[in-house]
Give the backbone structure.
Amino acid sequence: MPAYKAPLREIKFVMNELLDMPGHYASIPAYAEVATPDMIDAIITEGAKFCEQELAPLNRVGDIEGCTRHEDGSVTTPTGFKEAYAKFVEGGWPSLAHDEAHGGQGLPESLGTVMSEMVGSSNWSWGMYPGLSHGAMNTIDLHGTEEQKHVYLTKLVSGEWTGTMCLTEPHCGSDLGILKSKAEANADGSYSISGTKIFISAGEHDMVDNIVHIVLARLPGAPEGTKGISLFIVPKFLPNADGSVGERNAVTCGSIEHKMGIHGNATCVMNFDGAKGWLIGPENKGLNCMFTFMNTARIGTALQGATAAEASFQGALAYAKDRLAMRSLTGPKAPEKAADPIIVHPDVRRMLLTQKAFAEGGRALVYLAAQQNDIVKKAEDEEARKAADELLGFLTPIAKAFLTEVGYESTNLGVQVFGGHGFIAEWGMEQLVRDTKIACIYEGTTGIQALDLLGRKVLMTQGASLRNFTKQIHKFCQSEEGNEGLAHLVKPLVELNKEWGDLTMKIGMAAMKDREEVGSASVDYLMYSGYVTLAFLWARMAKIAQDALANGTSEEDYYKAKLATAKFYFARVLPRTKGHAASMVAGANTVMDLAEEHFAF
């Protein structure tokens, strides 16, 4: 099993040098006094120790043992999971980035993202138990009543209870407009919730005393489709007046899904048999309220792509340095050994550099999104909040879909570096492949995210959200126009930045004649957008490295590696945009003309 080591230098590079998080925190009054550089450094260092020492050793345990459902519907998590969670709560980690009014520590949500990255790379299955609570907390905080906040939010923030989101049903998948779960009003102001939900991560487990389910259901007489959905809080145990756990509610785990990966997390079929729940937000506005939950979850899922690339890269790099096979084509590099380490071979280096580029670029993208979230939540300048919210909305589908796709690619490359050993479970590389694939699917598949990006975020705004981002790229390129040392990065970035707008215009014009053009082009458009976005971030990182080397640094090798990785990304990965550009404007007819009956063979 790969030994996880938190990449603290890389984390600090993105936080301090690329995004200037110290200045960012100082500019927001809510964070200025609590998020000092010394405090941030101490928290990250301690978080790294917890992930390396407590969570990483349990990663393979969770994959082997999985979760066990008992006849009474209760679920036991893998050996060590419950104990690790108790230490997690004892250390105050769940409350890190939540408001002090609800028992939180008042630290930035972007700092919570850093902790989530380390948790995810060390043990994604375990991390899903506390991770699913974030969306529940945000939903209750924004849309819940003061009483609901008092009863549920404080327990969720402390980590004493965990939360879930119960959306999907057997017949509807992502099409929530046809869900069948129903809610009927009770005389005491509560509701009776009935229905079956599937694919509920952390739906039932033994790590906490209570689980708070956020459930979508329909009220009697509600409009058809998505306009008739309401949102409810349905706890596993009904809280007593003093906040303690009371009577068991009529919600049970019917079964645990048999999955490709993330075996350590209980993905449940949940049955609501007249379970008592309480409305969150207005009637029939549940989908609007739920987007609070979903946007939080999508950034978390984007993070999974980056964490998968990082974990697989760490395992592959260590193996490539140790594994001996054949000699270098330019002569022996380790003549004292029977063969050379495989890291000397160009194709192995190609795979490692691809993983490295995606892991480090992905971290930059997720942290950038998290930084915008800080501004949206806590900045006092209304214009700054508005701009950050727009940028966050634009980046979210790119980050979620693109990073999970390239994260999955990275895990497959990790297996390939190991060769035959990568296919053997004991090395842990194939587990990363299995665990990561789901990230391309949940919280909206790649196709759904692509429609959100192209259809809603770009075309429905007449390209405004895209232009606001491409202006940032344009300004950077302008500032480096005479920088000969970065010309090999800036020149292609300028060209792609212009092409991005041109392609958008072509698709928009074609869509005016045939709406199928949007769905036909969307995934290629999203992947193109992801590669260009990462190119922008890599160019910025290269500029920082160039300046550090020019000014003299004791970390010369580190910054040279940044420049080399940026060069590799632009030369070997970024050309993928050419294929996506050609595909997205190939026309909807190329995918729609074949009649359904002719698909059969």
Remarks:
- DSSP finds 20 helices and eleven strands in the chain.
